[in-house]
Amino acid sequence: MKIHPRNIRMLLGLAIAGVFIAAMACVTKEVPVEVIKEVVVEKEVEVVKEVIKEVVVEKEVVVEVVKEVVKEVEVEKVVVVEKITVVKQDISYPLSGSDFIVAAVDVGPPLYKRNQAPEPTITYPYYFGMTENLVDYDGQRLLTPMLASEWTLDEIGVAFTVRNDVPWHSSDYGQYVTPEDIHFSYTEMTKTLNGWITEYYIPQWENQRVDGQQIKWDWAAGTTLTWAVPARHAGSGVQAENLSFFETEGIDTAITTPLGTGPYKITSHKADDTVLLEGVKNHWRMDPGFETVSILEVPESTTRVAMLVSGDADITMVGTPMIDQVANVPGMQYHFAKFVRGTGATVHMGGNWRIRIDQLTGEPTISTYDDTRPWVGKLDDPADMAKALKVRKAFTVAIDRDALNDSILGGTGCIAYGVMIDICSSRHQERWENPFDPDYAKELLAEGGYPDGFDLTVWIPSGDTNETFVEIGQAIVNMWQQVGIRANIDGAGYAVRGNELAHGRQMNDVWLGDWGGPRVNFEVWTGYIACFDTTIEYSCGYDFPEAYDIHSRLVNETEEEPAWGVITEFLDFVHDEYLSFSTVFWFDPYVAGPRINPASAMSATGKNFPEIESFLPALDWDW
């Protein structure tokens, strides 16, 4: 087995160490204003010497005195001491005059109602620093208070005590967040099951209610280790939404009007153009570092990198193939999140909608099963299903993963065969590996009934995805062409076709997702596996009845090793059926310029821009 343990952070050798400390309302900055140095001084002095000369004369001694004047240089040596006068200066956040300029691939449309926003737009308010959740999350496993000042767990469920002093950005609809606002937020979430986080709420909790200043949830099926996921300050977690605002203005206004509680508030959002943020002074939780933030949509990677190098942008994600363009630029900083999921290229064999009756409702599913697709097969025809399996396997053995890693990623990635797990992971199994073999791929296609290959559309989302991913996806399509899988690429963004995966469940094309490893935390797998049953509305373009049992057992597992046993069962099934397979995973860093404080540390990263509230301005910059 060929192992590729290298990591982009190891390649760069520039991973940032240190712990981010939330900005204080006022800090002290030491400013050197005067330097006094004592240096070695040479001085010329005149020295008079008296020389006595003895002269011998017969029978008597004559002493002759001769006086000479000799010039000598005397060196006076002194100790060098540097004296610095320091003036202490108070700095208040947000720092006056500071503007954080972010060059992003996409800024999305102005949609702020959580249950109405598509992926990845649903996560943008969190990354903007506009919204807050019940509990804060360090990107690993540490939970700390946020909107909830405390919480208690028992055999019945959880009780969150909601703070009574968290102000909304506008007081027109009530000054402070209330338990009723939180109850409303979660009730709205359950109406559409939108976003991955909903999967962690529906199977685990029931009987949500307000009890004084508390929000209470009851266990739906016993305790779990993933109980806090819906409440966490991360990704598509459920943020506080203002009930009075919704009741007064209506859903249409609520969808397009930003109203939150976070350290930044939105002052302008022009779709596919710019987002302007303003730091909230005297914010209840943390003072934002910057007075203003400008997030600019710049789709072209070369332009974004050029802006970073020239100082026209302070930060942008730099794809691994372009790291060499910033590696030797003075002042560049490489930022990785504490919660690093990574990026990857994973192939999903869309259209394999095998769940025809929803086991949760007993009703027929809304998906369309199109068995004319060569990789799908007729459900009631075992022979035809076996042929479709051979076609799906041909897709994966036609991919030269080593070539992708070496030619595009410079060898810094990790090869992957099983879905969402790479060979660098200790959980990888060799039985999931299907080495590159184009002749075998052609043989499989012939056995599947397509000796001359076939034409198809492959969806590779672009515009609101990682650009390295798009390049790798295009390379994969070229490899498929070589064996007769003739693909036409659809480059529409997630915002355009995402509904086919979520509310519509009509994705019937083969498609690539930009999700990657390492996924070493078993807790994240419960959400991913829900993608393959009907627990949430979001899907991966196919489903199968076996996922119900696997998913329910994993949700209720509380120990790591037994949980991984269930996850491995899932990975075996998906591999043996070739319903999904990954190709290569990698890490693309966010690279920042000298105006950013290098001590800034993100908890998580988005596809298009970083977690804004994590960053501070450099104090030695003349703002």
Task: Describe the structure in your own words.
This protein has two domains: about 95-340, 3-Layer(aba) Sandwich (D-Maltodextrin-Binding Protein, domain 2); about 340-585, Dipeptide-binding Protein, Domain 3 (Dipeptide-binding Protein, domain 3). The longest helix has 18 residues, at about 560-575. The chain has 15 helices and 23 strands. Strand 8 and strand 9 (about 155-160) form a beta hairpin. It has a six-stranded mixed sheet. It has a four-stranded mixed sheet with strand order 5-14-13-12. The protein has a four-stranded antiparallel sheet with strand order 8-9-11-10, with helices on one face. It is an alpha+beta fold and about 625 residues long. The protein has helices spanning about 10, 125-130, 180-190, 200, 245-250, 250-255, 300-310, 380-395, 400-410, 440-445, 465-480, 495, 525-530, 545-555, 560-575, and strands at about 25-35, 40-55, 60-75, 80-90, 95-105, 135, 145, 150-155, 155-160, 205-210, 215-220, 265-270, 275-280, 290-295, 315, 335, 345-350, 415, 455-460, 485-490, 510-515, 580-585, 590.
Count of spatially separate domains: 2
Tally of helical segments: 15
Give the strand tally. 23
User: Which structural category do the helix and sheet elements fall into?
Assistant: alpha+beta
- Describe the strand arrangement of the main beta sheet, using strand numbers: 18-22-17-21-19-20
Strand % is: 25-35%
> What's the CATH class label of the largest domain?
Alpha Beta
Radius of gyration: 33 Å
Shape: globular
Biggest sheet statistics: 6 strands, mixed
Relative helix content = 10-25%
Task: Name the CATH architecture of the largest domain.
Answer: Roll
Question: Spans of 5+ residues with little confidence (pLDDT < 50)?
Answer: 1-25
CATH superfamily of the largest domain: Dipeptide-binding Protein, Domain 3
User: Overall mean pLDDT score?
Assistant: 86
N-to-C CA distance: 54 Å
* CATH fold assignment of the largest domain: Dipeptide-binding Protein, domain 3
